[in-house]
Amino acid sequence: PQYILGCGDAIRAKRHWLTFKPSSHRALSGGKLKASITNNHPSASRCELSLEDALGRRIRALPAFSLANGASKELVFSIPDDARAGAPKIVAGATAPNGEAMRHLWPTRIMAKPASVPQASNTTTTIPTANREPRLTLDREEQVKVGLRDPTLLETVPHWRGPKDLSAIAALAWRPDGIALTIDVTDDDLQINGSPKAWLNDGVEVFIDSRQPPGEGNYGPGVHHIILRLLPGGEVQAVTISSGTKKPLPVDAKWTKRTTGYSVNAFIKTLPAIKLTSGRELGFDLAVNDADHGRNRNTRVSQIMWRGEKDNHLNASRFGIIVLE
Q1: Which of 129, 175, 180, 297 is paired with 266 by a 20 to 30 Å CA distance?
Q2: How far is it, in rounded angstroms, from Cα 230 to Cα 172?
């Protein structure tokens, strides 16, 4: 990919100031991103590259450097280990001797490290249990996408009240015909019949992007969004809310009540076009919904998500990445 950026007089004169050539559209936290930068400005330019969080605060910066007209420089940008998926942005800036300046977001997405998914040992059961490490943990404030408390509002306004209110630990496994999910949800007020809309009840949402490479943005063929709705008697209804394909993925699932919440065991069957093999990457995300009865009936009070954002149902670019062992 190549990106040509201009600003101010450079645009009016139909000149392009900087040319970026990153090695990839995405970079992994804890990894490195290689790129080249070329100065197309008639004057030498002082260039800066930095990593900023979602609020524009600088996390890390490369030392500033000067480039003559037509000169290029090869760069290696190290991404911090704790960079959160979708949040940090690479920002490019340049200043010319005449005071002209530009600042532009580098169109490369910072992603969390992929989660490794083991192969299921039980190959014949209808719903295999995923019980091996690593675990996917949903318990941090920055993972709350709906219901994060606004400090300017009264404490009585419904909001997420911490991991004892809503959190989850999940494990995945795979076999050639599908993906097994086991998730233990902590929920202090279990509600399964509050609303006819699946996403407004307690339950689990699963997002899968089987495109190669995954994470290209808008939904298309191969992207699936499934809500696992809890029903009485341990049954689970798999509701396809938004899908990039006309054929939703079949799901076998059961749920059980626990003292602190509930557990769901599910097996998401893949379609023939999705071939699961060792080393394959998939876009993947999990969300858990909370509809506490006493605080806001028939409405989702909070939602916590493994990697993505609250627009996951429209935008697959925020999903996490899993790699099949």
Answers
A1: 297
A2: 20
DSSP letter for each residue of 133-144 = SPPEEE--GGGE
Question: Contact, 300 vs 158, CB < 8 A?
Answer: no
Give ∠ CA 269-275-279 in degrees, rounded to 5: 110
The token pair at 24 is 């990839």
Tell me if residue 216 falls in helix, strand or coil.
coil
Q: Name, in order, each residue with C-beta under 8 angstroms of 274's C-beta and a sequence gap of 6 or more.
A: 210, 222
Name 99's Cβ contacts closer than 8 Å, sequence gap at least 6. none
Other beta carbons within 10 Å of 262: 21
Percent of the chain beyond pLDDT 70?
74
Would you state the structure tokens that stand for residue 130, as one six-digit string? 């995923």
CA angle 293, 297, 300 (to 5 degrees): 90
Residue 74 in tokens:
């090869």
- State the Cα–Cα distance between residues 160 and 195, nearest whole angstrom: 19
Q: Name all contacts of 93-98 with Cβ < 8 Å and 24+ positions apart.
A: 93/47, 93/48, 93/49, 93/50, 94/17, 94/18, 94/39, 94/41, 94/45, 94/46, 94/47, 94/48, 95/45, 95/46, 96/41, 96/43, 96/44, 96/45, 97/43, 97/44, 98/43
The rounded distance, in Å, linking the Cα atoms of 180 and 126 is 10
Predicted confidence (pLDDT) per residue in 180-227, tens digit? 999 999 998 888 876 778 888 899 999 999 888 787 778 888 889 999
Report residue 97 as tokens: 């001797």
Neighbours of 31 (CB within 10 A): 16
pLDDT in tens, 67-86: 998 898 888 877 766 555 44
In the block, tokens 């192969």 appear at: 119
* Strand order, beta sheet including 72-78: 3-5, 18-22, 32-39, 72-78
Answer yes or no: are the C-beta atoms of 74 and 23 closer than 8 Å. no
